[in-house]
Design brief:
mainly alpha; Methane Monooxygenase Hydroxylase, Chain G, domain 1
């Protein structure tokens, strides 16, 4: 690997980590805006999505340039995985934007009830995302694999939220619009966890060369019994 | 370009078109299952998702092999775009699976009302997807660009469905679970249209070298005023 190529590859990874920082902050700030009923913050979260969009475009451009110069198969894998992770981060930022927009709608009515499971889901999804990026940086596939089963916990919380909000709707039609907004926010957090899981699977593929997406055979072949 | 490489690249495109055929069929059959209250068909649609998942993995493997042999920058672009389109098609198939699952839940209650807008949305989204793939095959960027504004029409129909279903929920709490299922199906179709739009944007990028995602400057630069 030439020094020049190595430096450019480092630049690509650095840009991805900057993007990851924005995407992670978006989720947490979106939920903060919800908890604090802070419309100004919700608007800032929605506006910040453009920065992440732009980073995705820049990462793709840089990645395609680097592909033509990549000397090794492992470099090709790193570059294509970077493009995929970048796409997941862009979608995380879209979820934050949706959360922020639903916050603004929720602010127009009194609060439905104190939120307990939503900040819990947000915390879980954010930690999954952070861990997936840490696993990418530290080439830690054990950490990446440990993320995957946590996706199910977030799915369960989302289903529980859905049931609880459905019963609030049945109790009183006045709750319906707020419940629908909260269902969307809960689903957004579930999707953030999905994206974190995608990133984790990409990290395993990158460093182990095994494609463990879609619960494939390669996933069953890992020894720790968690996937 | 060597003959061998050219043949392999042809194989990659062919696999993508097979995948596209499955993804398109999934959407239409999912909606047919809904309209006909055909649970057996809904179960087949959900089961068929595994075929599309497997094709995504095969396309990625083949694409990464080809990247290391690609002699030209345009080949690199074709290969990375193929990977992206494949990912969108995999997500389309996920949407069909969700539609099929919601059909099965809807079958457990009497029909809410005759469906009018849902088959209309399904038709629009499927044609967008078909046109985007045709544009890919025929290198027809004008056709690809013409798809992009149609996404807004599907978005509007989804919003209209959401309003209509919300008011049914307010009218009678007995409608709530059916309305929630139909809201999810409507949202799935809206997402299929989003994926078709992504494919169209990828086709423009592939053949014009312009990144028109996220309504970027390059999008504004096209002369037809439609994007």
């Amino acid at each position: 690997m030439t020094f020049q190529f190595e430096r450019e590859l480092g630049g690509l990874k650095e840009k991805l980590l900057i993007m990851a920082g924005h995407a992670e902050a978006g989720v947490m700030q979106g939920i903060k805006a919800l908890m604090d009923r802070d419309d100004a913050l919700a608007r800032r979260v929605a506006a910040a999505d453009a920065v992440v969009d732009q980073l995705e475009i820049e990462i793709d451009e840089l990645a395609i340039q680097l592909l033509s110069k990549a000397p090794l198969a492992t470099d090709l894998r790193l570059i294509t995985v970077t493009m995929k992770i970048s796409h997941d981060l862009e979608r995380v930022s879209d979820e934050s934007t949706t959360i922020a927009r639903r916050c603004l709608e929720l602010s127009m009515e009194p609060p439905l009830k104190p939120y307990v499971d939503i900040p819990r889901m947000a915390g879980m999804a954010s930690v999954m995302l952070k861990d997936a990026l840490d696993a990418f940086v530290n080439r830690d596939t054990a950490k990446a694999r440990a993320i995957i089963p946590r996706d199910k916990e977030v799915d369960l919380l989302n289903k529980q939220m859905h049931r609880e909000l459905s019963s609030f709707m049945v109790e009183n039609p006045k709750n319906i619009s707020r419940c629908l907004n909260l269902m969307v926010i809960s689903k957004c957090l579930e999707r953030v966890a999905d994206h974190a899981t995608n990133v984790a699977e990409e990290v395993v593929f990158l460093y182990e060369g095994r494609d463990i997406r879609h619960g494939g055979q390669a996933a069953a072949a890992n020894g720790d019994g968690r996937v």
